[in-house]
Specification:
Elements lengths: L2 H39 L4 H36 L16
């Protein structure tokens, strides 16, 4: 059953690429909402903008979490596809007696 690591890498890579896009789109929507709220209310204050800024921060957090999860899934697939070998130390970095 070798196809599993390939699919794991494809899905993980897709999720990793989509995560930052979700964060940027959420940031643009949240800041647009904040500016619209600021324009409609006519006053600047934290009580006016806090919900829109909170939405922006939640969108950024969600997008970055999605991207990190995708990188982890991709790394697991890559590790499995290489036969789960432990990393070797190059000869130049080994301690000499």
């Amino acid at each position: 059953m070798k196809p599993a690591p390939k699919w794991t890498m494809i899905i993980g890579g897709t999720i990793a690429l989509a995560g930052p896009a979700v964060a940027i789109i959420g940031q643009m929507i949240g800041m647009a909402r904040a500016h619209q709220t600021l324009g409609n209310s006519g006053t600047a204050g934290m009580d006016v903008l806090s919900s829109d800024i909170g939405f922006t921060l939640k969108a950024i957090y969600g997008g970055l979490s999605l991207g990190i999860l995708g990188v982890i899934i991709f790394a697991i697939g890559l590790f499995i596809s290489r036969g789960a070998k432990s990393p070797t130390i190059p000869p130049l970095l080994k301690n000499k007696p």
